[in-house]
Amino acid sequence: MMSEQTSSHKYIGAIMLPLRLVAGWLFFSAFWRRVVLVPEKHIMEAPQWLGHKINTFYPHANGLFKSMLGRFVENPEQMNVFTYVFTVSEWVAGILLIVGFLSRLSGLLLLGLAVGLMHTSGWLGPTCLDEWQIASMLVAIGMVITLYGSGSYSLDSLLNRRNPGLANKRWWQFLTLPLPASNSRFFRKTAYTAAGIVILYVIAMNQVHHGGLWGQLHNYSKKPDIQVMDYKRISDSTLSLQLYRDKGPETYGAFIIQVKMVDNSGHVLHTFDQADLKNISQQQINNAHINKIKAGKHSLVIPLGSKARVKLELPSDIRLKKRTDYRFILTDISGKTFSGPQ
Fold it and tell me: Is 158 exposed, middle or buried (0-12, 13-18, 19+ CB in 10 A)?
């Protein structure tokens, strides 16, 4: 008769198998896209470069992850190295999960990648909070595999059966973590504790990114925003604005066709129109991030995550007033307006 331990091992293997395969494919497919299907994702000069995508994570990343991304978005060469590390990590995680090898290690790697995604891109998703939902499920799957292994239907189990001596080696036990006795007190405490940690973490990140528990529910991917961070007077006829796009869909830029300059009394000093903005030279734009503000065919294009100081020249018959603060109203091609500094 099959022992309770063997039976539990088979049940857990059956449950883990589809979870492992799907989670493994999610990561392996990312590697496959970047290396085989669209190799331009690892070419810095290409529009498809992965660094541009990671730059869109930056505005509402949090904790140490925001500090890390902040360094990368300002240093393209470091970002390029990171993209390779990230892709290789996803390849390793995908392979280990699919075959069920070194289950505890693969679970930890999955958990680490999922937490990284949660804190960097968890705020993105203009339709259904997509990235937070994906990261939440991957965190749960990673925790389960880390604690309970892959069960019977895995390479770990096959190696155990063919090499019984492996079960006595501490390093093998640590990396594969065979399922503990299901009737033990330790097992029950572990199960309750792990479930509590995962659900509290997921709920907390829902609040952090989207206000999902209290306050105003928000989705930073849904409504574009451009911060006019400051204004500097360079000369009587020259000024500069620091612009930063921190919200909106990551796949669609903001297209600014008008910049209106207003003084303290509400008087419009000057309006930079579509012709002015589409003809701004690249020398007038000092970009700080990988995603760059630039003059497009019909407008000034501001992608998500971009930050730059833009220099503007007034016509010869208009001069800036000294000791006067100005407010700037930017109009997108859709008609939406952004204003600042506040």
Answer: middle
As a whole number of angstroms, the distance between CA 197 and CA 56 comes to: 29
| Paired tokens of 66 | 């925001």
**Dist. CA 290–CA 119, nearest whole Å:** 20
155 shares its domain with 11: yes
Same-domain status, 98 and 145: yes
pLDDT digits (tens, 9 = 90+) for 188-215: 888 899 999 999 999 999 999 999 999 9
Tokens of 217: 């529910």
* Containing structural domain, residue 43: 4-210
**Alpha carbon of 180 to those of 5, 145, 186, 283: distances in Å?**
8, 13, 9, 64
Q: What is the pTM of this model?
A: 0.90
Closest CA to 114 of 79, 147, 90, 78: 90
Degrees to nearest 5, angle at CA 196 with 215 and 187: 175
First to last CA, the chain: 75
Half-sphere exposure of residue 161, counting CA atoms within 13 Å on the CB side? 10
